[in-house]
Specification:
The chain is built from nine helices and eleven strands. With about 325 residues, it is of the alpha/beta class. The strands form two sheets. Strands 5-4-3-2-1-11 form a six-stranded mixed beta sheet. A five-stranded mixed beta sheet has the order 6-7-8-9-10, with helices on one face.
C-alpha cells in the first residue's frame, strides 16, 4: 500500500507486559491499538519483543538459573504466522492503522527477536529478525539475517525498523536509509540499566532522524515494581531493571515532537508533517547529493540464511 499522506499521526506505546499468562500481553496490545486509534493514530508502535514479554530474567540471572524461565518463554512464544498475528492483523484492519509489534518468534527449536509490520489493511508486510542479539540475549535468541533489512511501503509511508542496539550498527541503519525510509520504527526493552540507557537511547534516535532525514517513532517497555520484585527479590539487582525508558517521536530535524515518556504507562502521540523530510534532505541527503558512492558504498547479502540448500542434478 503506497501512501501520499501529507500528515501522519503516530503513536508510541509504553505499557507493561503480562508476565504471568500466555495471552495477557496480546490482550493489552489489542486494547492499546484501539485506544490509539480513538485518538486518531494511523501508526502504532510497540516495544521490543513485547509479546509475550522481553526476557528480563536473562539480564539478571546466570544462564544455569534461567533454564525454567527460558523454557516457559518457548511455550508462550508465538509462531509467525499464527493466532497472535491473526489477532493483530484483525485489529490493524478493523481500526485502519499500521502496527509495528515486537515478538519472541518461535521457529521450531529456536526463538528470534522479531519485528512485525502490519499494514492498515491487516496484511503482514514485513517480518524481520534482529541480526545480532545483544550480550545476555545471545543465550535466548538466534541470529537473524539481512533478508529483513527492508523498507516497506505502507498506508503511512515508507517504513523501516530496527531493534535496540541494532541502532549502533551503522551499516544496518544505512541499509534502511539507502531505501529511503520516511518513518523509522525503533524498539527497546525499557526498564533496564538505569537513566544512562534512556539518555543514550535519546541520542541514538535523534541522531538517526537527523542522519536519515526521517521521522523516528520509538517505543520502550515498562515494568511495575511488583514485576521487578517477581523477577528478582534482591534490591541490589532490582536496580538493573529500573530506568532506561524513552518512548518518543522525533522529526527529521532531530526535534522531539512530544514530551518523551520516561516512566509509567502511556501513549506518546504526535503528528508527522511529511514535508519536513524534503526540508531536511534539501540540505543533507546522506544517500543522495551528500553521498559519494564511488568512494564509499554498502554491500548487503540479503539472501535468507537457511540450514541447508539443495542443488538439482543437471542432465
Amino acid at each position: 500500500m503506497t501512501s501520499t499522506k501529507k500528515t501522519v499521526r503516530a503513536a508510541a506505546v509504553q505499557i507493561a507486559p503480562d508476565l504471568e499468562t500466555a495471552d495477557g500481553t496480546l490482550a493489552k496490545v489489542l486494547q492499546a491499538i484501539a485506544d490509539a486509534a480513538r485518538q486518531g493514530a494511523e501508526l502504532v508502535v510497540f516495544p521490543e519483543t513485547f509479546v509475550p514479554y522481553y526476557p528480563y530474567f536473562s539480564f539478571v540471572r546466570p544462564p544455569f538459573q534461567a533454564g525454567a524461565e527460558h523454557m516457559l518463554l518457548y511455550d508462550r512464544a508465538p509462531t509467525v504466522p499464527g493466532p497472535v498475528t491473526e489477532a493483530v492483523a484483525g485489529a490493524a484492519r478493523e481500526h485502519g492503522v499500521v502496527v509495528v509489534l515486537g515478538v519472541n518468534e518461535r521457529d521450531h527449536g529456536t526463538l528470534y527477536n522479531t519485528q512485525l509490520v502490519f499494514d492498515a489493511n491487516g496484511e503482514l508486510v514485513l517480518k524481520r529478525r534482529k541480526i545480532t542479539p545483544t550480550y545476555h540475549e545471545r543465550m535466548i535468541w538466534g541470529q537473524g539475517d539481512a533478508s529483513g533489512l527492508k523498507v516497506v511501503d505502507t498506508a503511512v509511508g515508507r517504513l523501516g525498523a530496527l531493534a535496540c542496539w541494532e541502532h549502533y550498527n551503522p551499516l544496518a541503519r544505512y541499509a534502511l536509509m539507502a531505501q529511503h525510509e520516511q518513518i523509522h520504527c525503533a524498539q527497546f526493552p525499557g526498564s533496564m540499566v538505569g537513566q544512562i540507557f534512556a539518555d543514550q537511547m535519546e541520542v541514538t534516535i535523534r541522531h538517526h532522524a537527523l542522519e536519515s532525514a526521517c521521522f523516528v517513532v520509538n517505543a520502550t517497555g515498562w515494568l511495575t515494581d511488583a514485576q521487578i520484585t517477581a523477577i528478582t527479590p534482591e534490591p541490589s539487582v532490582q536496580k538493573a531493571l529500573r530506568g532506561g525508558c524513552c518512548t518518543a517521536i522525533v522529526s527529521p530535524e532531530g526535534v522531539l515532537l512530544a514530551e518523551p515518556l520516561r516512566s509509567g504507562e502511556g501513549i506518546v502521540i504526535a503528528d508527522l508533517d511529511m514535508a519536513l523530510i524534503t526540508k531536511r534532505k534539501r540540505m543533507m541527503d546522506s544517500v543522495g547529493h551528500y553521498a559519494r558512492p564511488e568512494l564509499l558504498s554498502l554491500m548487503i547479502d540479503n539472501r535468507a540464511a537457511t540450514p541447508s540448500t539443495s542443488r538439482e542434478p543437471t542432465a
